[in-house]
Structure formats: C-alpha cells, structure tokens
C-alpha cells in the first residue's frame, strides 16, 4: 500500500498514528507531497483524488481511498487481527463515531478555519476572512474548556480505553499550536490526558 501525505499536516498524522497503533506503519510506503508547490494539483494525483487533498491510501490493487476516517475504516476492517480502534460492540462503535463527529465539527474544523483564514498561509489561493478566523479561534477555546471538564472523570475520550477518538482529538489539539492555542497548566485535566497520549509511541510518527 502507498500513503500519499504531507507529513506536517494533521489529517495524514491521524492515519499514521492509527497505523502505528495497529503495528502496520511499516507495511505502508509513504509518499510525501508538497501542497505548497502544488503536487496535489498534478493530473496523476487528481486521478487518485479529484478533491485534491491528502491523505490518500492506494491499495495493492490500485484502488485509491480518500478521507482520513474512510482510510482508517478500511485499515480496521482489513486487519481484524489487530487491536480495534473504532469499536468492538455496537455501543462502542456508536460512542466512538459520536466523538469523532464532535471532534471534527467542534474542534478540527474551527482550528482549520482559524489557520486558513488567519495565518496568511493561504492568502494566495483563497479569500481569507479575518473575522471568521477570530470567531473560529474562540470556538476552539470553547471546546478545550469542554474537554477540560470531560477529562476530570475520564482517562480517555470514550469507552474507557484508547481509540481513534483519542487519536483525532490529540492530533487536533496539537494542530491548535498553529493558531496559538496550547494545552497548559490552566487546564490540568486536558493536559494530563494530552501528556498520556503524547507519551505513546504512535505520537512520535
């Protein structure tokens, strides 16, 4: 398999952590893309993903799968011998999916929008709206506060164990550094959770 990615981007990091937790990272050939230089706009890559985004997983059969969680779902179902990260029971699967959506809608998207509209990185390719960046920045802080309360009574995001929800939350919290939001001592519960995940081997990939 091949994983087309940009190593510094948060979504490819989600997939790498997912693979690492399953002990499969060395089974994938990683292909680094430079989005700033437009590698994702070249015809051969657009043929793999017409949305022109990373990551993309190309299977040994030449089938290309786009979107982070679609890739993770394929890996999960293709390797049932590895630890499950998307749930074993109907209830676990539902709770993990619930949290994945919460993390995407209320943390990842606002973080990404604050970065895109406020960092200046995308000024040459989109209409950046400063006020939208500032509003999204506030939404990220609100969700950090929500997580601080949640982790007062929970060691992991859900299901009382490490799951894909922890991966997505951790990589997004890390992404928050790009907009100047960091986990500090003012949120001790969130910091304790962050430090537990940060200590895992998969967090180093």
Automatic annotation (TrEMBL):
The chain positions of domain GST C-terminal read: 89-205
| CDD domains named among the record's database cross-references | GST_N_GTT2_like
Q: GST N-terminal domain location, by residue?
A: 1-83
Domain of life the protein comes from:
Bacteria
Q: Name one GO molecular function term.
A: transferase activity
Keywords, A to Z, come to: Transferase
User: Pfam families, from UniProt?
Assistant: GST_C, GST_N_2
Protein name per Swiss-Prot or TrEMBL? Glutathione S-transferase
